[in-house]
Each structure stands twice: as C-alpha cells, then as structure tokens.
Design a protein that fits this description.
The protein is an all-alpha fold and about 220 residues long. The chain contains ten helices and no strands. The termini are far apart. The longest helix is centred in the N-terminal third of the chain and has 35 residues. The model has no long low-confidence stretch (mean pLDDT about 85).
Length: about 220
C-alpha cells in the first residue's frame, strides 16, 4: 500500500507540472485569439492570463492526473463579437491546439538538447533525470491534447472548426445538443472506446517528434 502511494506521488511530481503548463497555455491561446478577433469577453473576465489558477477546473484536473483525460475551465467567448464569425470560430478553436503544438516542439527541443549535452549523465544525475522525465510527460501530454481537442465532437475545438465550415442551420442545429453529445463522449472515454484510437494518433505525433529531433541532435 505504501509503495503504491509513493509511486503515485512520484508520478504526480512528473505529471502535474506538465498538466498545469499545457492547460494554461491552451486556454490562454483561446482567450488571446478571441480578443484579437474582436471579442474581449475572456479578457474582461480575467481569462487572458498565464496564471494556472484562472484556468484549472478542480474535477477535470484530478481526472487528468488520475486517469489521463480531463479538462480545464472553458474560456468564455461571445462569437457575436467576432469581426468575422466563421473566421473567428476557426482561429479561436485552432489557437488552443496551436499552443500545444508549440509547447510540444519546445519541450522536445529542450529534452534533446539536454540529452545531447549531458549524455549518460542524464541517467546518473537525479535532478537531470527528473527534468527529463517531466519533459517526456510534457511532450506526450501536449501531443495527446492536440489529438483530443481536434475531435469533431462538441464541445471540443475540432467540432467548432468543422461546424464553422458548415451552413449556419447545421451549425446551430447540432450545437443545440452539445451537452448531450458531451455526455456521450465522456461515457465513451470512461468505457475506453475512444482510448485506443486516441492513443494511436497521439503516439504517431509523439514518435514523429522523437524521430525528427533525434535526427537533428
């Protein structure tokens, strides 16, 4: 029992920093993009910030730590304020996953730079090895967030990108059922029906990053 608790706390040490940074930048990306597209709602409500406390949802955060899937507080936006409604929907939706892509690239660059500079010392130095493990989690988590958020199912970013391309009557017709679709998706995640395809796609991106930076360094 004690070993399980120790193992959990050790894993939390690696996972929690990655989650806090990744979710914070993701939501900040949405807020900043909405502001640039003409909607100040998120900024006025204090969400255009890099303070994790403004973005973390306690339940979603705990689920992400324990089970590998969860959520942050959705950034409040008012699409009616966008200078161009459909363009605004696409730009704001893509902003979150773009931030995750940037974080994954930066995390991989730091990790492989450390490996290139320190070599075998990474395995013997406890501080360096801890940082390396955190970065592994960090890159993997951001790859997972990219894939997960691009699923074209409400309320995920991918759905808003898809519906922004569709005629308005289809968009608003589907969004009426957003809450029920979200519940169904959550049940699919709990049962593991979505886990395999999501993990496969996340691993594809993660392995592509590893191969790319391995060749460079």
């Amino acid at each position: 029992m004690l070993e399980n608790i120790t193992s959990f706390l050790r894993n939390a040490l690696y996972v929690v920093p990655a989650i806090l940074i990744s979710l914070t930048f993701h939501e900040f990306g949405h807020a900043y993009a909405a502001y640039k597209m003409g909607d100040p709602t998120a900024r006025n409500l204090g969400r255009m910030t890099l303070n994790p406390l403004a973005h973390i949802d306690p339940i979603g955060f705990i689920l992400l730590v324990l089970f590998g899937f969860g959520w942050a507080k959705p950034v409040p936006v008012n699409p009616r304020n966008y200078n161009n409604f459909k363009k605004g929907e696409i730009v704001v939706s893509l902003a979150g996953v773009t931030m995750n892509l940037i974080l994954a690239v930066v995390g991989a660059m730091i990790l492989y730079t450390m490996l290139a500079v320190n070599g075998y010392k990474m395995m013997t130095d406890s501080v360096l090895s801890t940082i390396a493990i955190i970065l592994y989690y960090f890159v993997g988590l951001n790859c997972g967030l990219i894939v997960f958020n691009l699923i074209p199912i409400p309320p995920l970013d991918g759905s808003r990108i898809l519906f922004a391309i569709l005629p308005n009557k289809f968009y608003f017709g589907i969004m009426k059922y957003e809450r029920y679709i979200m519940i169904a998706m959550f049940l699919l995640l709990l049962t593991g029906a979505l886990t395999t395809p999501l993990s496969y796609l996340s691993n594809l991106i993660y392995n592509a990053f590893n191969k790319f930076f391995y060749i460079i360094f």
